[in-house]
Amino acid sequence: MTVEAITITLVLITFLIYTGIGWWSRVRDTSSFYVAGQNVPTVANGAAIAADWMSAASFISMAGLVAFLGYDGTIYLMGWTGGYVLLALLLAPYLRKFGKFTVPDFIGDRFYSNNARAVAAIATIFISLTYISGQMRGVGIVFSRYLQVDIIVGVLIGMAIVGFFSLLGGMKGVTWTQAIQYFVIILAFLIPAFAISFQLTGNPIPQLAITGSDIVDRLGQIQVDLGMTEYMAPFTDLSLLNVFMITLALMAGTAGLPHVIVRFYTVKSVRSARWSAVWAIVFIALLYLTAPAVGAFAKYNLINTIADKPLEEVQDIEWVNKWETTGLLQFNDLNGDGEINFTSGENNEVVIDGDIIVLSTPEVANLAPFVIALVAAGGLAAALSTASGLLITMTSAVSHDIYYRIFNKEASEKQRLRVGRMTLFVALLIAAYVGINPPGFAGEVVALAFGLGAASLFPVILTGIFDKRMNKEGAIAGILTGLTFTLVMIGLILSESIFGTDGPIIENFFGINAQGVGIVGMILNFIVSFIVSRNTQAPPVEIQQLIENVRAPEVDDKGEIAATKED
Amino acid sequence: MEKQEGYKTLDEKQKRYWKKNLRLISGLLAVWALVGFGGGILFAEPLSNVQFFGISLSFWIAQQGAILVFISLILIYAIRMDKLDKEYLDQVKNEKQSNVG
């Protein structure tokens, strides 16, 4: 069997499993549709959070980003894990205790305002849509390379599968499917990492191999010899200020992402919310601790395979040839010497898309065809699991927060479920469209989503829990300030790719680039909401009571505390 | 989930519980900031001259160590809060018993 045939078979098998689970756990009422009836076990929920969170960006792109950024790749490594500390300590347990369905639900009720609810719902929809475009690009890349189908066909197949089990199973189906997808994702990431680590260093554990061997040193030396930046030295690609700001923006953005937060509503107690966070970070860290090693190994292998080698010889290698046809790997022999000049700056003759680093690693290292197929299945699982979580989140923002809570308070269970499924269908069509026609600035759009999450939802949820005096005037003023500032700044800094101006309108905001500027928006949000809330009326008594109650330990109907019960 | 009650503030035990919770959160977040933003970013340059198992210490913190610390912080929080929950429940039970007796 060829690599492509094995890949198709394995992908089909995993898709059948996902669909089977969607069918098995199909739902009939709205509560399970949005939050899985709050009866998902803690470990499964942790795995589902991990699969939901680890998107095509984590699986396909991150190791590649780290490989090209070196030390400064820590913005993604620390930024996308450190956010869970904020989430687990500051948000998850209390949001669970409030016992709402969605993030806009919490904001609307806590700030006793449908305007706040609508703003939060719109932010949720916007953040989720920008995310989905990234996932669909991942699906497109995997299909176009391994299944040798047109990207359009690939995206349509993927959307059909996601739609089928999301429509059928709602959040419960998605949760169980995601728990299974997690194991596909992590196996697909770890197996080639072990193999390549053993091959290069003789030590199969990648985390030990990067410290116990001289591989990173050797990589650093080769990079310097080739005229690239030193791999281990900090701040060679980004300034200290930007590394600091972007890391913080990704952390606060993570904690403010509605599709992740909503996961903590699917557990049965505050205690399970805390332990779900533990499982989630453990599962996520398995990949995040391995990615920097994969990045370093892949870069080392790649440089050794192509740098200073005759162009024709390299183009005869099968994987080089196949990636060249996707356009994600290109060679331009600028000086016409027939050899590949791989460096940084204008003499570089290799154009390589970071997204192919993880996907091509098993081929570069000559691993078995089964491993190559597994990596393709893992990449698809990562993209599909995140896409389905985002779809459900978007759906609930429209059908629950906007339709039911604002426009039709008398809507029956059946009506709400119907509107939910209709929204999901429309969201699916939009996502498919975005997947087939990805915006030229997909990377910037994802940064935008994190910046907006950090500048809008995160501060409001935080003060909603910890500041009893915070009122609706303060919250709305804060969100609007944070959102507007961040949107305007991103628009100005990235005007070249967004509006097509000749060069950016401003280079950066006092040295902070577009990815990190959300933190300034977040600080403004905190300041404005504090000042406005202190100069307007205190929230009503029942809201203050609500916050008091959230601070007390959770006691159930029998007067027992959740901590004394076993899961 | 939604109980109809008049406005009442937390009792003494609940206040203590909340204060301890806040102290725990502040302590853990201080470590989070110190390791992630201190060791991984602000002091990255001086620490990059320190060797740690063959690679620079700051590189190891930024790409491995900080993540391990983040896991520990979330785990410690879950364990300590379980303990705090139990302490609170024991106090409530003791009080009930002494009221009955």
From TrEMBL, chain A:
GO molecular function, one term: transmembrane transporter activity
Topology of the protein relative to the lipid bilayer: Multi-pass membrane protein
Stated name of the protein: Cation acetate symporter
Compartmental location: Membrane
Keywords attached to this entry: Membrane, Transmembrane, Transmembrane helix, Transport
The keyword NAD appears for this protein: no
Cellular compartments per GO CC: plasma membrane
TrEMBL record, chain B:
Keywords in alphabetical order: Membrane, Transmembrane, Transmembrane helix
InterPro entries: Na_symporter_ssu
A Pfam family of this chain: DUF4212
Domain of life: Bacteria
Residue stretches making up the Sodium symporter small subunit domain: 14-88
Keyword Transmembrane helix: yes
Ranges that cross the membrane: 21-44, 50-79
Protein name as catalogued: DUF4212 domain-containing protein
Organism: Ornithinibacillus caprae
